[in-house]
Amino acid sequence: FSEVHYLTIEKVGNVPVTKGNFQSLPAHVQTWLAQMIQLCTPKAVYISDGSQEEATIVTKKLVDYGQLSPLTKYENCHICRTDPRDVARVESKTFIVTNDKHSSVPHSREGAKCVLGLWMSPQDISKELDTRFPGCMTGRTLMVIPFSMGPVGSPLSKIGVQVTDSYYVLLSMRVMTRVSPDIWRHLAHGEEFVRCLHSVGVPLPAAQPIVNNWPCNPEKTMIVHFPDPRKVMSFGSGYGGNSLLGKKCFALRIAGRIAKDEGWLAEHMLIMSITNPKGEEKFIAAAFPSACGKTNLAMLTPTIPGYTVRCVGDDIAWMRFDKKTGELRAINPEAGFFGVAPGTNMKTNPNAILTCLKNSIFTNVGETADGGFYWEGLEEETPAGTEVTSWTGEKYKLGEDKTKKSSHPNARFCCPARQCPIIHSRWEDPAGVPISAIIFGGRRPEGVPLVIEAFDWKHGVFLASQLKSESTAAAEFTGKQIMHDPFAMRPFVGYNFGHYIQHWLDFEKDPDNKLPKIFHVNWFRLDENNKFLWPGYGDNIRVLDWIIRRVNNEDVADVSPVGLLPKKGSINLDGLNVDWDKLISIPKDYWASDIDETLKWLDEQLGDDLPQDIRKEIQKQKDRLSQP
Ligand code: SAT
Ligand code: MN
Fold it and tell me: Per the database record, which ranges form the Phosphoenolpyruvate carboxykinase GTP-utilising N-terminal domain (predicted)?
């Protein structure tokens, strides 16, 4: 075998390796890289070591090129403006490829457009990829990034290698994952790794003008997942979710498939701990669709005295039931935060602001004349009259023209998690942290109470399956539509969603599993004047406190047709002026039509793949709602 490998490898010899030692890499990595080099025809190969020196050199290169510029107000922070056509994930161009269609996507009903994953056959995708990848790195450097999702060497972690022609991706991957030459040692005996290929899709000389020094190829963008050979191929976009392949592509879509095969969970969830005034600490995981405030919740500043919050992760959780103790243990596979910038300020999320004052990259935000970042939400912290350059390059003075927007609504900060002032001391614990409660939530302007506790595991899985939320700027959708987003995983699931729901249900079958309680929250309910009924942000601790009391089985809940609701007076509302009855009410008409709509949607989308247990839960909810 090795001889065959060496024959292929020799072809790499034509392309100079400008950093690192190719021959010292594990043989199976060399083989794969040789194929990638042959396919993409770069002018050079660069093997990243993830070091600070490397980051400094690459940053300078990008500053000279004009893709980054320093934000001089802070230490080692940079701003980047993308081509305005490349600003978010593109779900319509994100595919899962398997031989068998229905291992990837459900048996949707005739005529229904499946929105729970897009499948393409290996034959069809080959044709697409053949018009994209051959020669795609001509004139560019192919970078090799060895990374770990999760602490290097943890039994819960997984390894990937990303090839990319984007220096921005190299710098961001270094923040978001653990990039280190140690990875090669963990692959020394032919161990599995996820193969991640990324190209901005602009070989040189470029066929079209490059906008903002941000090469990309929106017409041909395509993000393709091969769950069986554990491979991702992404073309044409430099934006985070499309290009930092360790994140959604690997840690959710590919890892989700691995997790199903191996009996664990890869979820779009934050992980945090709450310590109450008695000093008891509990860890929770919470799933919300993109841009619904996961980062804010993960590091919230409690508004009621005596509580401490610590952050373990803000976006992705890998969780498995411990064989010995039955506890659900979770790790954050990431090493950084890639958070939505607009709306973040010293009131809504001081910890996020404090995390990103050094070593951070800001994408598609505004810049103040004195070298600071600026975005919508920082008005009170930035003097009126300050000159701002918007993400599109327009200069204006703050406060003078209220129609001007400094930032793209999906503008992002990318910062190292270890810099977070309230990062948990165990955030890198290789054994993970024990989860006591799982929360699901979305933006629901109407009808949905502040918090609901599921009756039991099955009911909780049903609550998660019927998750809906108002659309956000994190994807390509426009307008404020309420979209189904079961488990907050609609864009991120890597296999048949019916099987995914069944996988969740199956955890109940092992009597040794200590199943966490499941909750549904809604911070976004509006009154008749379109004003939020709940203050949100730091005041969400009041709801978390109630949730923890329910975890401790305190008698603070009442039965309702849709789940357990907090008893009046059981949530601490000291100092708030809220309309409790409106906040907790469950308008029967709304819920009666909502459950019909949910059943219709789930049935259309999943057809016979919708687990029977969910159909039964829906029927039970209908029965409860129709009781007088
Ligand atoms: O997809 S990203 O990871 O870039 C952001 C998100 O949608 O959560
Ligand atoms: Mn996310």
Answer: 32-259
Q: Point out the ligand 1 atom lying closest to the alpha carbon of residue 89.
A: 1
Residues 347-382 have pLDDT tens digits of 999 999 999 999 999 999 999 999 999 999 999 999
Check if 283 has its Cβ closer than 6 Å to any atom of ligand 1: no
Instruction: List, in order, residues 6 or more apart from 193 with CB less than 8 Å away.
Output: 29, 159, 160, 161, 187, 230
CB distance 253 to ligand 1 below 6 Å: no
Ligand 2 centroid to 186 CA: how many Å?
28
Give every CB contact of residue 137 below 8 A, 6+ residues apart in sequence: 40, 41, 42, 43, 165, 199, 203
Quote the CA–CA distance of 341 and 345 in Å, as a whole number. 9
Task: Find out whether 121 and 101 touch, Cβ atoms under 8 Å.
Answer: yes
Query: Which atom of ligand 1 has the smallest separation from the CA of 248?
Result: 3
Q: Tell me the CA–centroid distance for residue 573 and ligand 2, in Å.
A: 30
Tokens at 63, concatenated? 């500053």
**Residue of the CA atom closest to atom 1 of ligand 1:** 241
Burial of 574 (0-12, 13-18, 19+ CB in 10 A): exposed
Amino acid at 55: A
Strands 194-199, 158-164: pairing is parallel
For residues 22 and 47, the answer to whether their CB atoms sit within 8 Å is yes
Cβ distance 520 to 451 under 8 Å?
yes
Domains of the chain plus CATH, in order, are 2-67+88-263 (3.40.449.10), 266-336+423-626 (3.90.228.20), 338-419 (2.170.8.10)
Q: Is 90 in the pocket of ligand 1 (CB under 6 A)?
A: no
Take residue 430 and report the two structure tokens written for it.
Answer: 């290789």
Token digits for 622? 């209908």
User: Looking at ligand 1, which atom is closest to the CA of residue 240?
Assistant: 4
Cβ contact 556:550 at 8 Å: yes
- Reply yes or no on whether the pLDDT at 10 is more than 60: no
Determine which residue's CA is closest to atom 2 belonging to ligand 1: 241
What is the pLDDT averaged over residues 231-249? Answer: 98
Find out whether the beta carbon of 248 lies less than 6 Å from any atom of ligand 1. yes
Question: With a 6 A CB cut-off, is 338 part of the ligand 1 pocket?
Answer: yes
Q: Does residue 3 register a pLDDT over 80?
A: no
Give the distance (Å) from ligand 2 centre to CA of residue 316.
Answer: 7
Handedness of CA 474, 479, 480, 486 (dihedral sign): negative
Which residue has the least CA distance to atom 5 on ligand 1? 241
Confidence of residue 474 (pLDDT cuts 50, 70, 90): low
Closest ligand 1 atom number to CA of residue 239: 4
As a whole number of angstroms, the distance between CA 474 and CA 105 comes to 23
Question: Do the beta carbons of residue 420 and residue 427 sit within 8 Å?
Answer: no
Per-residue b or e along 224-233, where b marks 16 or more CB atoms closer than 10 Å to that residue's CB: bbbbeebbbb
- 415 as an active site residue: the answer is no
Query: Per the structure block, which two tokens stand in for 307?
Result: 């509580």
Ligand positioned closest to the Cα atom of 491? 1
Mean pLDDT value across residues 568-590: 97
What are the tokens at 390?
């918007």
89 lines ligand 1 (CB under 6 A): yes
Pocket flag, ligand 1, residue 241 (CB < 6 Å): yes
The whole-model pTM stands at: 0.96
- Pick left, alpha or beta for residue 488 (phi over 0 → left; psi -120 to 50 → alpha; otherwise beta): left
Distance of CA 167 to the CA centre of its chain: 21
Res. 478 pLDDT band, cuts 50 70 90: low
